[in-house]
Amino acid sequence: MIKAIFWDNDGVLVDTEKLYYRANKETFAKMGIELSEELYIEFFLKQSLGTWHLAQAKGFNKEQIDAFHVERDELYSRLLSTEMNVITGAEETLKKLYSKFKMGIVTSSKKDHFEIIHKKSNLLEYFDFTLAFGDYVKSKPAPDPYIKAIEISGFLKEECIAVEDSERGLQAALNAGINCYVIPTALTRHCNFTGAKKILNSITELPDLLL
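The chain above was modelled as a monomer; its predicted structure follows.
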């Protein structure tokens, strides 16, 4: 019996992945680098490596790259403040599942970005806990975020599930030994989701599967 649900944030609850891609694309353009969707998907959504090695190959030094990194994060913050939307059906789904399961958000987002997102999302009231970058040792696809979530929940891993939208997120859940439902986005729909418990078309399908 499932007792806990661990939710990824970006792409599952909030429509932010396209904004993060845009912030990276615009920043890299200033370095003369065309960051295609294919490169972004491969290095961010599959491997979680980032693409700063492209800047190194272009001849930028560490100080320059650090400055562009800050610029990217500031641009992303501005986009989140003005263009962030909650995924259609997310709040409706959370309302149906609330109090019936222990629920947590397990994200690789930086805490300052996470806070900006949820200042106006109205979603945090449905969760028992949140884990963001810095609350665990290694980010997804390492199992650390989900191992931490299992510990906080107080349940066995067999009693927990994850909800993800990316290949790296799925791998993190599987590496932690928990089943994972995947809801692909426009950016992740062609990723490899082998091992997923089920691939869904919408977050609104979850209540019928879990209740």
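The chain has two domains: 4-15+85-210, 17-83.
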